[in-house]
Design a protein that fits this description.
The complex is a heterodimer of chains A (794) and B (272). Among the domains of chain A are: 73 residues, Helicase, Ruva Protein, domain 3 (Orthogonal Bundle); 178 residues, PurM-like C-terminal domain (Phosphoribosyl-aminoimidazole Synthetase, Chain A, domain 2), CATH 3.90.650. With 794 residues, chain A is of the alpha+beta class. Chain A is 34% helix and 24% strand. Chain A is globular. In chain A, α8 runs parallel beside α9, α20 packs parallel to α23 and α24 crosses α27. In chain A, β24, α21 and β25 form a beta-alpha-beta unit. Chain A has a 7-stranded mixed β-sheet with strand order 12-14-11-15-13-16-17. In chain A, strands 30-32-29-33-31-34-35 form a 7-stranded mixed β-sheet. Chain B has 272 residues and is of the alpha/beta class. Chain B has one domain: 3-Layer(aba) Sandwich (Rossmann fold), CATH 3.40.50. Chain B has 6 helices and 11 strands. In chain B, the strands form 2 sheets. Chain B has a 9-stranded mixed β-sheet with strand order 2-1-3-4-11-10-9-6-7, with helices on both faces. In chain B, strands 5-8 form a two-stranded antiparallel sheet. In chain B, α3 links the parallel β3 and β4. The chains are: A alpha+beta (794), B alpha/beta (272). The interface between A and B is large, with 44 and 36 residues.
């Protein structure tokens, strides 16, 4: 049925329509939403219909588009803020019930601004704060890998600029389908994982390198489900002089848009992000992917930092999802103002854009600031010096109305109340544990071969070939690098020393265990938190803040939502247990493709501090005859492990997190590092003990001899389980003979044991439970296996 | 002239991104370095107020067309006269990474004719292709002509990082031998890629990280006052910037990068 009779052309010399919502049936309302790409459901469309009835007029296309954007899942997080029914439990906002609640209860003084600004802000020292943000850019990266990933980086950097912070480091965690995926099995519209992998990693590198921000931490995971739903997390850390954090916009302050020109790229990005990918995504959504120009953003950054330092502006935000619509609306709302914007003043890439396109465009490298009128000239001069276009496009107003004009014609006039009053939805959730059995197979005879195979599985193999394409030391402040020393060992976390004449450092790490989520999303989330924290602690980090980033399937489907609820429960439980507040987060839902839903994936990013970078510990073995301790109990927990995967199983025995044990382990690591007792420290994750010790040895150039009989824990009856269990909260620690006593005083409980020592002989030798040698491999062989898969052996 | 009176200009344009750490390296020497946008120098016409000019790393103007070429052309168009005087006065000019690319595109390096009208060399796309961020070893080749490295003994091996995708130093094929001979004759060859024992890379990746002709990493002009190199000494200034510092038992204050700047002091104090 045609809807054309509902569109009334307004008599102007540009393209604008009124839409006759009053005379539209329910069916037509839903159709309107689809046809205009609003992404609104019937309930929301009826709310709009009712509003304009009270206004005694029809909405314009501009107004409908603004509401579609403001109320989109991407911008107002309906799932996380709405009601959820799960069994007899009713959850009023996942966000408030779990994520924010943990932070609220912990309420640390050092959390300066959480879940409020474009980025979470925590204190660094008396003069500076750290700003941190992680975003996802999955949908755009699926359609256009290079551009999607690059603009993902650009977007999260602007979030950091959006709190007046100077971006000092980037992170990225990526998820791809298997690189050897069978071409003939790819459904139409899904790009091959290898193509996506090449494009995404190139896009991430290009943006960070061009902007001169080091990309210091990250991970790459491979999972079947990522074939149709590529996962691209982009993070950025910023440094913010506390005195310069300005939030004081007032009516009559001028709205200035600076940076790139506005075009049709990135229209409906937010509604695109809130829908499933289909065969047609390429065709329909190509315009939703923006074009990246990192040099423009670099120039914008320079100008903004000068404006900040001279204190010339009163508020700042980025133009990201939802473009000006989101930026203007949210800025006005935050400061209790209204706003008037002249859309014809916005600099365009080409003519012919309709007013709604200008207002919703997500063209990249644009920022919005508000400026007291008396500072406008200075501000524009600064932009000019940096060769950046900046334009005053409107101002904040006293009344709570949003007014948009185009060549003096009012094209939209909405109450701010309406904009930020989207209805809360109620969704149903359910979760039933999947029926997975624990596999039964006998201990393989050749465990050396198994270890070499594990080292070369894509999830464990060296990512050096990718990391080298990211500049990880521009700015000259990377004190602990992602690749350590001559053999490019995989450090657990990166350390940035951000301030000259000050030894304090920022520690950046992450944790993610999508495979565990296939068994139990609760333990998956718990494990991700544990992993992010232990990676941070392993190098000397402490006072840790967390960022949560959920990548899930369609939340309208109860079982998907159910697993999300379970993960959120774990977030609360473990954030409070470890006293690690959440400071920022983001959810990306609707990750579904013709190949099915994404494996529920929670990325936890941990931001810690280290009082003195000189005490930072790396993961490579340092000297022969040093002792090797295993801190933490080992259990036969192999569900979701790389070892089971190698044998074609998932298993049921997912690693759990035991709060009391974990806390004890965490404490001793920090105490021992502070006492200078630890020469090397590495966390145990994918591949367990055997992979961890192999990495420490191949990175240090020294061999190691371990005795599995000395490993403590429970239920340890098989060599392979002891070698490859992925039990959480564990660390391998190298201690010199002379520090033995001091270290053992600290670790006088059953969960820590001396399991071996470093040897001069460049060989890894592991004695099994029966006393005979079960693993024996030269460092060269270990290195070769570890590097050949993704890094061509170099 | 006193050291405090020396003025170093670290020149930047859109896309330059190693200016702050480069200026920091000069500050470690006790010299004031000012970061100036080309637009400011054009507006104030004050390039000749500076004693040293530095082109830091980055992606000037996006490195579109060819790395460094837009910066070089714009600089010539806007400040060509001042720049020529600067060069003729034998005031030191340093180009690091993108800065080296700018100096080559400007005709200042190798600068067989002091200020060549056309580039005489090129920094081409890496072989193997792509951006590469890694620490490498350099062997110091200069016999004393290069004023920046005069404090470094000939043959000394230094440890510094590279990070670029266009760093393959090339001469025109037909002039390769002739130009190389001139580099040696006029003591213009400053650094070559080598392994940690000082053996030349002989083109072997990753010891030679970009496939440079003759393992060339850095050269100076025949006057020794203009020096360009692909590696980043400013990222190897302090001990804690080294990728393996946690393995080193002695923690000296500075890493090898500092040596690249030290020699300049003697020249400046003598000249001005």
């Amino acid at each position: 049925m045609s809807l054309s009779h509902l569109f009334i052309r307004v008599n102007t010399n540009f393209n604008i329509h009124e839409i006759d919502t009053q005379n539209a049936t329910d069916e037509q309302l839903q159709q309107l939403s689809n046809e205009l790409g609003l992404g609104l459901n019937l309930q929301e469309m009826k709310q709009i219909q009712a509003y304009f009835k009270t206004q005694k007029r029809n909405p314009t296309d501009v107004e409908l588009q603004i509401l579609g954007q403001t109320w989109s899942e991407h911008c107002c997080h309906k799932t996380f803020k709405g009601k959820i029914k799960m069994g007899d439990k009713e959850i009023n906002s996942l966000f408030k019930t779990y994520i924010a609640k943990a932070t609220k209860e912990l309420n640390p003084k050092w959390c300066l601004s959480v879940f409020e600004d474009n980025a979470g802000i925590i204190s660094f020292d008396k003069d500076y704060a750290i700003a941190a943000k992680v975003e996802t850019h999955n949908h755009p990266s699926a359609v256009e890998p290079f551009g999607g990933a690059a603009t993902g980086v650009g977007g999260v950097i602007r979030d950091i600029l959006g709190v007046w912070a100077d971006p000092i480091a980037c992170t990225n965690v990526l998820g791809f389908g298997p690189l050897d995926y069978d071409y003939t099995k790819l459904p139409s519209g899904v790009k091959h994982p290898k193509y996506v992998y090449m494009g995404v990693t190139a896009g991430i590198g290009a943006y960070g390198n061009n902007m001169g921000i080091p990309t210091v931490n990250g991970a790459i995971y491979f999972d079947e489900s990522y074939t149709g739903n590529v996962v691209v997390y982009c993070g950025c850390i910023g440094l913010l002089p506390l005195k310069k954090f300005k939030k004081e916009a007032k009516p009559d302050h001028i709205i200035v848009v600076a940076g790139g020109k506005t075009g049709r790229d990135g229209i409906h990005g937010v509604t695109f992000a809130s829908a499933e990918l289909t065969e047609k995504s390429e065709e329909v959504s190509r315009p939703a992917v923006q074009i990246a120009d990192p040099i423009e953003e670099e120039k914008v950054k320079r100008a903004l930092i000068e404006i900040r330092d001279r204190e010339l502006a009163s508020a700042i935000t980025d133009l990201g999802g939802g473009g000006m619509s989101s930026a203007v609306g949210e800025t006005a709302e935050r400061y209790g103002c209204g706003a008037t914007v002249d859309l014809d003043k916005v600099p365009l890439k080409y003519s012919g854009l309709a007013p709604w396109e200008i207002y919703l465009s997500e063209s990249q490298e644009r920022m919005l600031i508000t400026v007291p009128p008396e500072n406008l000239e200075d501000v524009l001069d600064i932009f000019k010096k940096e060769d950046v276009e900046a334009t005053a496009v409107g101002k904040l107003t006293k009344d709570r109305r949003l007014r948009l004009r185009f060549f003096d014609v009012t094209v939209a006039e909405l109450d701010m109340e309406l904009l930020f009053s989207s209805t809360t939805s109620t969704k149903t959730a359910s979760w039933i544990a999947p029926e997975i059995a624990e596999p039964t197979f006998s201990v393989p005879k050749d465990l050396t071969g198994t270890l070499l195979q594990l080292l070369s599985t894509p999830n464990i193999a060296s990512k050096e070939s990718v990391i080298r394409t990211y500049d990880h030391e521009v700015k000259g402040n990377t004190a602990l690098k992602p690749l350590h020393g001559e053999y490019a060992g995989p450090n657990d976390a990166a350390v940035i020393k951000p301030v000259d004449n000050c030894w304090k450092g920022i520690v950046i790490s992450c944790g993610m265990n999508p495979a565990y989520g296939k068994i139990d999303p609760y333990w998956m989330a718990a494990s991700a938190i544990d992993e992010a924290i232990r990676n941070n602690l392993a190098v000397g980090g402490r006072r840790i803040a967390l960022l949560d980033n959920f990548v899930w399937g369609n939340p309208e489907k109860p079982e998907r939502l159910g697993s999300l609820v379970k993960a959120c429960e774990a977030c609360y439980d473990f954030a409070t247990a470890f006293k690690t507040p959440f400071i920022s987060g983001k959810d990306s839902l609707y990750n579904e493709s013709p190949l099915g839903p994404v494996t529920p994936t929670l990325l936890i990013t941990a931001i810690g501090v280290v009082p003195d970078i000189r005490s930072v510990v790396s993961m490579d073995l340092k000297a022969p005859n040093n002792l090797i301790y295993l801190v933490g109990n080992t259990y036969p927990e192999l569900g979701g492990s790389e070892y089971y995967k190698l044998h074609g199983y998932i298993g049921k025995s997912v690693p759990q997190v035991r709060k009391a044990e974990a806390k004890k382990n965490f404490k001793v690591i920090t105490q021992a590092i502070d006492a200078g007792l630890i020469k090397a420290c590495h966390d145990l994750s994918e591949g367990g003990l055997a992979v961890a010790v192999a990495e420490m040895a191949l990175a240090g150039g020294y061999g190691a001899e371990l005795n599995l009989k000395k490993v403590v824990g429970a239920g340890l009856k098989r060599d392979d389980f002891v070698l490859f269990s992925e039990s959480n909260s564990r660390f391998l620690v190298e201690v010199s003979e002379q520090d033995r006593q001091a270290f053992e005083v600290l670790t006088k409980w059953k969960g820590c044991s001396l399991i071996g020592k470093v040897s001069r002989n460049p060989k890894l030798v592991i004695n099994g439970l029966s006393g005979s040698v079960v693993v024996e491999a030269s460092l060269e062989k270990l290195r070769e296996s570890w590097k050949q898969t993704l890094s061509g052996g170099v | 002239m006193k050291l405090e009176e020396v003025r170093v200009c670290v020149m930047r344009v859109g896309g330059t991104n190693c200016d702050i750490e480069t200026a920091r390296a000069f500050k470690e020497l006790g010299i004031q370095a000012e970061i100036r946008h080309l637009n400011e120098l054009v507006k104030n016409r004050n390039l000749l107020d500076y004693h040293v000019l530095v082109f830091p790393g980055g992606f000037s103007y996006g490195d579109y067309v060819r790395a460094g070429v837009i910066f070089a052309r714009r600089l010539y168009a806007k400040l060509g006269r001042e720049l020529k005087t600067f060069v003729e006065n034998n005031r030191p000019i340093l180009g690091i990474c993108n800065g080296f690319q700018v100096l080559v595109e400007e005709g200042l390096l190798p600068g067989f004719e002091l200020f060549s009208a056309y580039p005489e060399a090129s920094l081409a796309a890496n072989i193997p292709q792509g951006y590469n961020c890694r620490w490498i070893y350099l062997k110091h080749e200069s016999k004393g002509n290069c004023i920046f490295t005069r404090r470094i003994p000939q043959g000394k091996v230094l440890y510094v990082p590279v990070a670029h995708s266009e760093g393959r130093f090339l001469f025109p094929k037909e002039k390769e031998e002739q130009f190389l001979e001139r580099l040696y004759e006029e003591d213009m060859l400053v650094f070559r890629y080598c392994d940690k024992f000082g053996n030349y890379a002989e083109g072997q990746y990753p010891t030679n990280p970009n496939g440079s002709f003759h393992d060339i990493a850095g050269i100076c002009n025949s006057q020794g006052t203009i020096f360009g190199l692909m590696p980043h000494p400013e990222r190897a200034l302090y001990w804690w910037q080294q990728p393996d510092w946690t393995r080193r038992s002695s923690k000296v204050q500075y890493a090898d990068g500092k040596l690249f700047f030290d020699g300049l002091l003697d020249y400046l104090l003598k000249k001005f």
